[in-house]
Design goal:
alpha/beta, Rossmann fold, binds nicotinamide-adenine-dinucleotide, N-(1-d-carboxylethyl)-l-norvaline Dehydrogenase, domain 2, globular
């Protein structure tokens, strides 16, 4: 089914999302408070650019919000959408705000659902679809159908949880990675190598439950019994992360993170990731 989709916010994520949706044949309109961002994203997607939110959302069947990750800003944007469009599903690309918090103050919270893409949005297949307490299953199903029609792998959650699935898993791994560095067991380079040479390639083909089945659940019972009590259990950002960020060592965008990084490291990574996913598709 062809949808008319307004993408609000044409930054890193909104621009990629607009390309994904337009490529699948939907009518896409892009709105951003920075008109030049809307124009650039619309041009890259083959969509229309809008300088007024009202004109972007008028008659839209789906509104996809990819504005900055600030609760008040998003609530305000959603209120404007509700005032200008009566029926569209309002999908938010928030990475961390729970749908019930976003829906607070909405006239009709049943319109809200999370559609959480991953950067780069036009390359990474996964989109998590997260209902709020008021979201009907039919809305989740419609988002899943839309995303699958765009070639995405949509994973619907049964209920909301902080961080959804993928970022929770990622955070669990990052906590242990930093714990190992703080213990002096390995350097960041060595840990990155253990992941890219060992865990990562397996995970492109099989998730944790399949890997446990392949290894044997008796084995994994012993492994988890032995290791869980020894794992890092930090309940806040560790000093090695917090201190770097405070010093302005922000990663590729400032030239220095855990290691020195080129400003174009993200773009180079996106190209290599696209090649890897092509190879994965060809063997799956
Ligand atoms: N960057 C990521 O890796 C990533 C991944 C998944 C989800 N997200 C989520 O996607 C959303 C957007 O993130 P991003 O990285 O694209 O941010 P970004 O800063 O690159 O883009 C945000 C865009 O929104 C525009 N904007 C600001 N106020 C607006 C308003 N009131 N109405 C419309 N547009 C407005 C800005 O001009 C900017 O172009 C956030 O909720 C973020 O958490 C980001």
């Amino acid at each position: 089914m062809q949808e008319t989709i307004a993408v609000l916010g044409a930054g890193i994520m909104g621009a990629g999302i607009a390309r994904v949706l337009a490529r699948a044949g939907h009518e896409v309109r892009v709105f951003d408070v920075r008109p030049e961002a809307a124009t650039a994203a619309a041009e890259s997607a083959g969509a229309s650019a809008h300088v007024q939110l009202e004109s972007a959302v008028a008659g839209a069947t789906i509104v996809l919000e990819a504005a900055p990750e600030r609760l008040e800003l998003k609530r305000d944007l959603i209120a404007q959408v509700e005032a200008a469009n009566a029926g569209a599903i309002i999908a938010s690309n928030t990475s961390s705000i729970a749908p019930d918090a976003l829906a607070e103050g909405m006239r009709d919270p049943a319109r809200l659902v999370i559609a959480h893409f991953f950067n780069p949005a036009d390359t990474v297949p996964l989109v998590e679809v997260v209902p709020g307490p008021a979201t009907p299953q039919a809305t989740v199903d419609r988002m899943v159908a839309l995303l699958e029609g765009c070639g995405k792998t949509a994973v619907p959650l049964a209920q909301q949880v902080e961080g959804f699935i993928a970022n929770r898993l990622q955070a669990a791994l990052y906590r242990e990675a930093m714990h190992l560095v703080e213990l002096g067991v390995a350097t960041p380079e060595q840990i990155d190598e253990a992941v890219t040479a060992g865990l990562g390639p397996r995970w492109a083909l099989a998730g944790p439950f399949e890997i446990m089945d392949l290894g044997g659940l008796d084995v994994w019972t012993s492994v988890t019994d032995g290791l869980f009590p020894t794992l890092g259990d930090a309940s806040a950002a560790p000093a090695m992360l917090r201190d770097r960020a405070a010093r302005g060592e922000l990663g590729a965008k400032s030239g220095q993170g855990f290691l020195p990084r080129d400003a174009d490291a993200g773009a180079a990574f996106a190209r290599r990731l696209a090649a890897l996913l092509e190879a994965r598709d060809s063997i799956n």
